[in-house]
Amino acid sequence: MKNRIERLCEITHNKEVSSSYFRIGLKWQTPRIAPGQFVMLRVTDSLDPLLRRPFGIYNVIDAAGKASLRGTGIELLYKVVGRGTRILSLKKPGECVDVLGPLGNGWPLPRLLSSGKNRWGRHDKIIMTGGGMGIAPLYLLAKKIKTGVVLFGGKGRAEAGLTKAFKGHKIRIATEDGSVGKKGFVTELLKEELGPDSAVCACGPVGMLKAVAALADDAGVDCYVSLESSMACGIGACLGCAVKSGAHGAAANRDYRMVCSDGPVFLSRDIDWEAL
Ligand SMILES: Cc1cc2nc3c(=O)[nH]c(=O)nc-3n(C[C@H](O)[C@H](O)[C@H](O)COP(=O)(O)OP(=O)(O)OC[C@H]3O[C@@H](n4cnc5c(N)ncnc54)[C@H](O)[C@@H]3O)c2cc1C
Ligand code: FES
19 CA distance to ligand 2 centroid (A)? Predict the structure, then answer.
């Protein structure tokens, strides 16, 4: 893909938006990005850490760092969890990072946006379901969908704050500690929202995705999940991110699929959930 290249991007901002959660802006002339695609960042010039780190593309922004459909940059939302993200969090505006992307295949927008009865079924109610940092790649999708339902599940108030940016959607929150929204898991909210005209787009920890996929399957509706995996190359070359494909669906005749190049977004019935 012509648009997929390695480039040095200047940092426009790198702000802590909530404890351990950062938003980083990267200059990128006329990015053409599909919601659900990701980039791989090299966080140092040295060999430690050796591997690039993958991040979903959160937003497309203009030179002033504001959301824009025809932007000159991208924004990532990330959580500091280890060495790579800690190094990233210390970077200052004006510094540059090496970025590979955009990578992978995102959510199938034409299918999702063709509401009403069509050859893919009914997708009148799109339910975007995010768990923890899984909310990040859903933001760009939510901007394209315009009116849908956003369900968020997180540990508590700090994570729930990540939904504040979502506008124009019905937003429902579940937290494990009950500090915001319903006490419990996001799947409880999904049970209440699912109907025969729904399609589900989900991103989050694998346990959550597994439960979401099972609920969507029981309801007989399409469910598109964005998977996470350890990644080395990001372009389908090292086979390090292979997942077993399910017994049904488009991937049935292929044993393994690469999260980086076949995904990260998959139709849930194309995945062998028992093998994850
Ligand atoms: C396609 C894709 C998109 C992603 N998008 C985002 C995003 O938008 N925002 C974001 O904050 N993170 C995202 N991640 C996860 C992110 O890549 C990792 O958090 C990051 O690589 C951790 O690097 P580190 O060096 O700080 O941590 P490491 O030192 O590598 O690991 C520290 C701890 O974090 C755990 N960890 C590392 N990677 C992951 C992972 N992928 N999932 C769960 N636990 C992990 C490790 O097991 C370890 O316990 C994405 C991952 C993938 C594959
Ligand atoms: S990360 Fe190398 S094949 Fe996916």
Answer: 31
